[in-house]
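Why should sequence recovery work at all? Because a backbone constrains its sequence more than one might expect. Tight turns favour small or flexible residues, buried strands favour hydrophobic ones, and helices have their own preferences. The token representation captures these environments compactly. In the example below, the structure is given first.
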């Protein structure tokens, strides 16, 4: 840390007011997203900035990092690090923190919510009642969830929280990860194709790392049972969206419940037009309770950095 510089924070993307206000009260906050000419702004002020706050879904590009020679900390509002080049941060000795631990349950809740809402047609049922169609028609049938097979891609904290919830629905739990976790009494599948073939619900809870990008493509949809659902609460870039749209249109899979997309906030018109999807605007961690905790963690890490004490949520 360079003590001769102001205690400054560069906000790459908007964050919730609570966090913005706390940061503004304690530090000199620059909002990059409000600059009409971000490059000119960084040219002028970049050498004074020592910390960056950004969101998990936004990250910070290497071209920005390169314009911040004094940068020592990137504090991420979220747990995903896929939008930050960690090889770059390591080689520049820039610390990275995430809001670990506090959003696991909310994200797992939403995964189950999408799964249930999709299979049990909750949105269609709601519309059916509100439009008065029940007065003259019988509602249609939906798909059972209890007792079915759920395949979880990525058995980290979030994957395990989904599995615990799924056990409450008497579901048979399968998973794929780099290696089996012998502490877990679930069936490990060696690869995503085996998992997809065996699952009634394929739930994505893996990171958006480079090697995972685009891994859910036509070859996966081709081996999924035609009654199966895809649920994605992880990262849109895991899925080849064109292949997903084709699989849904051609009935290769039964439906999809999505919280994340390849190019947020843009959602392909073809997805929106489909009946067999349930779409959410990347809100898995967006509860009052969790977002408050995430704000506190980001603030605490920025404060710790300026106070030169160990960062509570630093990643390796
Ligand atoms: C947040 C996320 O929605 O944790 C992550 O990586 O993507 C989400 O929890 C996001 O960071 C806030 O916009």
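From this structural description, the recovered sequence reads:
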């Amino acid at each position: 840390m360079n003590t001769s510089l102001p205690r400054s924070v560069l906000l790459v993307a908007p964050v919730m007011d609570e966090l913005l206000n706390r940061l503004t009260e304690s530090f000199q906050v620059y909002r990059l997203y409000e600059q009409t000419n971000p490059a000119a702004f960084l040219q002028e002020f970049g050498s004074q900035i020592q910390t960056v706050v950004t969101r998990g879904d936004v990250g910070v590009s290497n071209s920005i990092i390169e314009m911040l020679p004094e940068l020592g900390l990137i504090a991420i509002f979220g747990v995903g690090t896929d939008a930050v080049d960690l090889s770059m941060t390591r080689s520049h000795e820039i610390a990275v923190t995430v809001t670990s631990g506090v959003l696991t349950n909310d994200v797992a809740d939403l995964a189950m919510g999408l799964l249930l809402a999709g299979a049990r047609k909750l949105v269609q049922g709601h519309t059916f009642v509100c439009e008065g169609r029940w007065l003259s028609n019988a509602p249609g049938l939906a798909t059972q969830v209890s007792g079915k097979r759920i395949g979880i891609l990525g058995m980290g904290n979030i994957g395990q929280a989904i599995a615990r919830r799924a056990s409450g629905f008497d579901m048979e739990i399968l998973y794929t990860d780099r290696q089996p976790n012998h502490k877990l009494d679930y069936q490990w599948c060696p690869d995503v194709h085996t998992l997809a073939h065996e699952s009634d619900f394929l739930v994505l809870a893996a990171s958006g790392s480079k090697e995972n990008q685009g891994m859910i493509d036509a070859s996966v949809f081709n081996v999924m049972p035609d009654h199966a659902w895809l649920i994605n609460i992880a990262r849109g870039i895991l899925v080849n969206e064109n292949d997903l749209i084709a699989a849904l249109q051609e009935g290769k899979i039964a439906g999809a419940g999505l919280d994340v997309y390849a190019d947020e906030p843009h959602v392909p018109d073809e997805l929106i037009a489909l009946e067999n999807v349930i779409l959410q605007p990347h809100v898995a961690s967006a509860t009052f309770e969790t977002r408050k905790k995430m704000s506190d963690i980001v603030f605490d890490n920025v404060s710790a950095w300026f106070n030169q004490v160990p960062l509570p949520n630093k990643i390796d």
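A few observations help interpret the result. The CA atoms of residues 255 and 276 lie 5 Å apart.
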